[in-house]
Amino acid sequence: MRIELAERYDERVKNSIFDILRLCDKEFFPPLSQRTGTMQTDFAKKSEAAGLEAYFDEILKQRAILAQDDGGKIIGFLSFRLNPETPILAQYFPIAHITTICVSPTGRGQGIGRSFYDFLFRWCEQHGVRTISTRTWSTNAGHLSLLRKLEFETIHTIANDRGEGVDTLYYLKELKGQAT
């Protein structure tokens, strides 16, 4: 498996990311295709969803960390934004905010999620970014377990944001590397 950063996307990478989004769409709560974008802040408010293509278009404006299998096929990605315009995160700038993590079913169980985070930690330290954030929902057991192992801290909870008993949780990790 190879992990690398993509800041520009050729057609192969674009097609791979979109295929993975389609495979993972309904595993998100709410599904990615029912969201208004990668930085949607109010899931309880019913609004016109932008659709999977619009969500994908937003990812293409971000950086992504790609996972490739031994044959070179992209089997997962983590997309992130630097210093996103959201009041919850503004006090932590400079910050890398993870917007989406998707791993195709064939790539699961190989530690790709952990590898994405390890790569992002190193990248942030090299570029003077000392804080990483993400958000998820309160019933996303796999991601929550990984965030605990990586010592992320909950910084904000929006109760019942995604439905009765399903909260939106914002997580933060301050990197302890040397200043650049």
What is the strand and helix layout of this fold?
Blueprint: E1 2-6, H1 11-24, H2 52-59, E2 63-68, E3 74-82, E4 95-103, H3 112-126, E5 131-137, H4 141-149, E6 153-158, E7 168-174
Parallel strand pairs: 4-5
Antiparallel strand pairs: 1-2, 2-3, 3-4, 5-7, 6-7
Overall description:
The protein is an alpha+beta fold and 180 residues long. It has one domain (2-174): Gcn5-related N-acetyltransferase (GNAT) (Aminopeptidase), CATH 3.40.630.30. It contains four helices and seven strands, in the order βααβββαβαββ. The chain has helices at 11-24, 52-59, 112-126, 141-149, and strands at residues 2-6, 63-68, 74-82, 95-103, 131-137, 153-158, 168-174. It starts with a strand and ends in a 6-residue tail after the last strand.
Features:
single chain, 180 residues, alpha+beta, Aminopeptidase, seven-stranded mixed β-sheet, 4 helices, globular
Structural class: alpha+beta
| Helix content estimate | 25-40%
What is the CATH architecture descriptor?
Answer: 3-Layer(aba) Sandwich
Number of domains: 1
CATH class value: Alpha Beta
- Give the tally of β-strands: 7
How much of the sequence lies in strands comes to: 25-35%
Work out the radius of gyration. Answer: 16 Å
The oligomeric status of these chains comes to single chain
Q: Which regions are unreliable across 5 or more consecutive residues at pLDDT < 50?
A: none
The main pleated sheet reads as: 7 strands, mixed
Principal-axes geometry comes out as: globular
Along the chain, the helix and strand elements come as: EHHEEEHEHEE
The CATH topology corresponds to: Aminopeptidase
Counting DSSP H or I runs of 4 or more residues, the number of helices is 4
Provide the spatial order of strands within the biggest beta sheet.
1-2-3-4-5-7-6
| Assigned CATH superfamily | Gcn5-related N-acetyltransferase (GNAT)
Mean pLDDT: 93
Head-to-tail CA distance between termini: 29 Å
